[in-house]
Amino acid sequence: MALESSEPSEPNESNESTDPTEPSDPIETTQQRTDNPLLQTENLVKRFGQFTATDRIDLTIERGEFRSVIGPNGAGKTTLFNLITGALPVTEGAIYFDGADITTLSPSARVRRGIGRSFQISNVFGGLTVRENVRLAIQSVARDEYTAVESLFKPTDRYDELNDRTEAILDRIGLAHVAAEQANALAYGDKRRLEIGVVLATDPELVLFDEPTAGMSVEETRETIDLLEAVLVDQTLLLIEHDIELVMELSDRITVLNGGQILAEGTPAEIAANQDVQNAYLGGMTE
Ligand SMILES: Nc1ncnc2c1ncn2[C@@H]1O[C@H](COP(=O)(O)OP(=O)(O)OP(=O)(O)O)[C@@H](O)[C@H]1O
């Protein structure tokens, strides 16, 4: 992904509020949406100089949905993800998550609100144990759940709770038996499990996966997707995936991007039958 290496301009951290009832957060109090989708983008535009990478994207993701985003190379898929996670600042438009305008929140504030992004193996600390990786990810978001006074007077309770949550995630991803092993000593499939565990540890409501199966064999791809489906049952999933067969099989709905715009949106059957999609994408385009 070319974009991952580009240096994101950090959006304004000052919009962050650690207390959702805090009245000084104008976004929470003044721009609630009336409908109830989990994620909504409105007229989302990203320009790099004169070039428009995403062009007036209106995307609505319902709770519990499995949505895939497809499109030819350069269609704007990764850019769209980077806007949603806050890795890139938007040029125009707005992003709403769980009813609140998050357009200018920092990436870490978005993680704390419940937007998780798949971490590639480089984001798993190879020198730490499996357990330490999961625990670290939990701690990265858990600090907001405790006031300073609580952590001062109840260190043991907090410690126990973090440990319980760590063990629960290790169970859920099936790595309890290798919890004390170093992450870089894990077998390939177990590394993938740990990556998913690290995402899960941030307790996301929405998880974005940007080509989680890139470079995998057919068998590894299948195993990874089965695992995602088995572990992330309570989450809403947004997936960029080039394997069309897989996308057709898994998705509730599919969004097709082309040239930075939404070309089509619908169920797998609707997308498969869409002539525009066939012409622009499923036809001659190669990935
Ligand atoms: N930092 C940047 N500066 C300038 N142009 C960029 C930058 N990042 C992306 N682009 C351009 O924006 C367009 C969309 O790129 P993006 O990576 O979002 O596409 P994509 O659909 O994810 O493609 P792929 O399938 O190849 O990953 C491309 O033409 C790309 O060259």
Automatic annotation (TrEMBL):
Annotated region described as Disordered, given as residue ranges: 1-39
| Pfam families reported for this sequence | ABC_tran, BCA_ABC_TP_C
One GO term of the cellular component aspect? plasma membrane
InterPro entries attached to this UniProt entry:
AAA+_ATPase (IPR003593), ABC_AA/LPS_Transport (IPR051120), ABC_transporter-like_ATP-bd (IPR003439), ABC_transporter-like_CS (IPR017871), BCA_ABC_TP_C (IPR032823), P-loop_NTPase (IPR027417)
What SMART domains does the entry give?
AAA
| Segments of skewed composition (Polar residues) | 27-39
Q: Which UniProt keywords apply?
A: Amino-acid transport, ATP-binding, Nucleotide-binding, Transport
Transmembrane helix found in the keyword field: no
- Provide the ABC transporter domain boundaries: 39-284
Low complexity compositional bias: what residue ranges? 1-17
What role is this protein assigned? Answer: Probable component of a branched-chain amino-acid transport system.
Family, similarity comment:
Belongs to the ABC transporter superfamily.
Q: What is this protein called?
A: Probable branched-chain amino acid transport ATP-binding protein LivG
- Organism expressing this protein natively: Natrialba aegyptia DSM 13077
